[in-house]
Design brief:
Number of helices: 17
Shape: globular
Strand order of the largest sheet: 5-6-1-7-17
CATH topology of the largest domain: Alkaline Phosphatase, subunit A
Strand content: 15-25%
CATH superfamily of the largest domain: Alkaline Phosphatase, subunit A
Length: 390
Amino acid sequence: MTLLPPDLAVPRYGTASLADVLPGAAAALGVTLGRGDLPADPLGLTEALGGARRVAVLLVDGLGADLVRAHADIAPTLAALASPAGDLSAPCPSTTPVSLATLGTGLPPGSHGILGFVTDVPGEDRALNHVQWRDDPDPDEWQARRTVFERAEAAGVPATVVGPLAYAGSGLTRAVYRGAAYPGAVGHGDLCAQVLHALAATPRALVYGYVAELDLTGHVRGVDSASWRAQLALIDRLVEELAAGLPEDAALLVTADHGMLDVPDGTRFDLDEEPALLDDVRLLAGEPRARYVHAVPGAEADLLDRWREVLGPRAWVGSRAEAVATGVFGPVDERVAARIGDVVALARGTWALVTPRLEPGPSSLVGYHGSLTATELAIPLLTLRGRSLG
């Protein structure tokens, strides 16, 4: 068995992970979803939300559990919410497209196939950036698993996703929210109003809201910044407004897609300055804390050795087969395995594997995520029950 170092952890798929949130919410609404070997409701949401006829799930991008605990004074509404299952695990890599697909399908990344922020398109010698994706490749084929929203609708529970209007019709939206209405929100107030409207519109409802700004602020300003703390206070106010308008027979779940940490100048490893790491590389994918390296044919073993030798303790480095064997992606469907690099590098500590020449924007950020440290993996699951639910 291939093992990770003790400071990196395997996500707890089927026990306490982001993949388990929507299946549990659906189960609380009477919709039991088959997930292969994974249990239908390992978080016990059927009991925790007992009697709820409508469930809203709010995902705050970048709201790591450690960050919530560290700033309880800034976010008193969040701090006061119950936590029925403790911290959950983000998936691997701990990055937004992977997490949103994991949430939307209720499956680990190895099953749904969205395996990174940027991944290789096998056989086409090009990369796919999942946040800039429109219709190539076809979202229905690239992520072919049925979503929880599709399955809820088929069972007679209307599903609505309230996310930024700018994301309506994107490839990622189509791939991970398929089956739900997507009205599009133009701000936090609009999102709040639309979530509450969708909850009240039908006798049963599954409603999901997505908020992006906290993550963006953390990337650009850092999580140890006045800007990030101010943004968290606004998020707390949004949750307060949702709680105030919650129908009596509804429940609200608040979660996140990953945590985040700041990367100081001293732990930025510049790949551009190490030619040995980029020689024989056909395509460099992933992101600074979770790299996928695709080798020119025949150079896979040599490239793996070089990455291991040069990076040393800065990252766990393994082959595709070794990474799959750790279980970090969950069971990996052979149809999507090639999207994972020939070499996988998961950053340790606060290291980031940057390449200012190839990726000037991502290489200049302050806050990062993507790897499997405790701070990146730990995400909250917070609940609030309507008045009639006790």
